[in-house]
Design a protein that fits this description.
Layout (H helix, E strand, L loop, with lengths): L1 H26 L22 H89 L1
């Protein structure tokens, strides 16, 4: 009996939730249309009027001068970037050369140490051999 009561309660809760959701979605107004944003590099010039046509050559000249200035600035920026990259490459090459020199010095030290240990080992075995020969001769 208790199992049926639980099912009835769940059915009532489910029906209430469905009714609540259907009324909430039915009453909600549609979302407002969002305005579209149009990006413009510069405002569009107004149609040329007779008075503007006399100023047009001046404006073209000013734009050409500005273009020349911008090209010069761009050239300077390129030269600066190239010189910075060259200086960085030079510093990197110097650092690599220093590391290679240190590596060569370390390898030379290791080779000298290896030769010294080889001499010690050889002398040790010669001494062991001499002791063994002496022991054999003394018997």
């Amino acid at each position: 009996m208790k199992g049926h009561a639980v099912l009835i309660h769940l059915a009532i809760i489910l029906a209430g939730a469905m009714l609540l959701c259907s009324t909430a979605f039915a009453e909600s107004p549609p979302p407002p249309a969002q305005p579209t944003v149009v990006a413009q590099a510069a405002p569009a010039p107004a149609p040329a009027k007779p008075a503007d046509q006399t100023a047009l050559p001046e404006r073209v000249g000013a734009l050409e001068k500005e273009n020349v200035v911008l090209r010069e600035d761009m050239g300077k920026a390129r030269l600066d970037a190239k010189s910075d990259l060259d200086a960085l490459a030079k510093r990197q090459a110097e650092a690599i050369a220093r590391l290679n020199q240190q590596l060569a010095e370390t390898q030379a030290k290791l080779e000298a140490e290896r030769a010294r240990r080889d001499r010690q080992n050889r002398n040790l075995w010669i001494a062991i051999g001499a002791v063994a020969v002496g022991w054999l001769v003394s018997d």
